[in-house]
Hints:
The chain has helices at about 5-10, 30-40, 50-55, 75-85, 95-100, 100-105, 115-125, 125-135, 170-180, 225-235, 260-280, 320-325, 330-345, and strands at about 20-25, 40-50, 65, 85-90, 140-145, 155, 165-170, 190-195, 200-210, 215-225, 245-255, 285-295, 300-305. The chain has about 350 residues and is an alpha+beta fold. The protein has 3 domains: about 5-115, Rossmann fold; about 125-135 and about 200-340, D-amino Acid Aminotransferase, Chain A, domain 1; about 140-195, Dna Ligase, domain 1 (2-Layer Sandwich). Strands 11-10-9-12-13 form a 5-stranded antiparallel β-sheet. A 4-stranded parallel β-sheet has the order 3-2-1-4. The protein has a 4-stranded antiparallel β-sheet with strand order 5-8-6-7, with helices on one face. Strand 12 (about 285-295) and strand 13 (about 300-305) form a beta hairpin. About 35% of the residues are buried. Bound molecules: adenosine-5'-triphosphate (ATP).
Amino acid sequence: MITPDEIQRVLAGYANHELTVATVGSHTALQILKGARDEGFRNLAVCRHGTEQVYQQFGVADEILTIGRYQELMDGTFQQQLIVRNAILIPHGSFVEYLSPRRIENELAVPLFGNRAVLEWESDRVKERAWLLNAGLRLPLEFTSPEEIDRLVLVKFPGAKGGRGYFLASSEAEFAQKLENLNLSDKAQFTIQEFVIGTRFYPHYFYSPLQDRLELLSMDIRYESNIDGLARLGALVQDRTPEPSFVVTGNLPVVARESLLPKILEIGQSVVTASQELFSPGLIGPFCVETICTDELDFVAFEISARIVAGTNLYINGSPYSHLLYNEPMSTGRRIARELKDAAELDALERVVY
Ligand code: ATP
């Protein structure tokens, strides 16, 4: 078990002016590596054999270390290779998925950008809901038993990986029939959630503890298969609509009506404030609240990702929002590196690295 003190000891041994920004070669690694370089850091990608070409091709990595399986990153000798390079790891969605929140918390001695405690809060559905409720956000209604279903609901399963296995139902009977047909091992662990109809907005926030400032850097809408394809079939399939699925296949850029921005900023701020109360020092750096805006212009939040999200890949060169905040192309990846640079200059890395 790695303690916070051990990580701080590793960090104390680092040369502040010779840090290496490191990440796993997947997800948002291109912008993280480019952003690190733009901010003057040396960078490093840890790739699985066969995936390194992407990072060579785009020429964004100063160094690439390859491993057979992502889990090998946890080997003591491999971690040591990172530590001797004064490496700070930047977590992203694939990083967390491949290595698991528990293993990261218990076994990773390499300093990580952000608060490790957040991994547990975002990956446990009960804790995540408690956090969002604590922030005062409106969440989709949840039904404890199928008998209560009185509207269109989305039935979710843990670790669904992009909504795989989710199904819609409008009644207890439809629920029972679809559950029976489902090919899943842990069918008992379902969550029945009101299906909220509206516009999905996935705002990409950044919270800087150094400046105590929340920034809205960009926003996207996830493109999902087959739900987003079904709309094109319309009247053709009215009799036999295929079961919708929600597998992310891409991201679309979006800006919200300007009059919605106060609410969007408030959502980000209240999630940060709640995190500081629940797991001090709370959220650090990038996060995304997955929301649906109803026709009453009310936001319903159904999930939080407490790290850089893939939708930010749209904005490697900055977004309309980041352009207002910064007079230079500011991706989320670069913003992380900027925070690290500021912390290193203030000799305060321990405020952003855990
Ligand atoms: P990820 O971890 O990649 O975000 P996931 O497997 O946790 O995915 P969710 O994000 O919960 O899945 O949901 C997947 C998709 O299902 C969402 O992007 C959204 O389109 C839709 N969705 C989820 N919850 C609701 C809801 N309550 N009402 C309407 N649509 C929803």
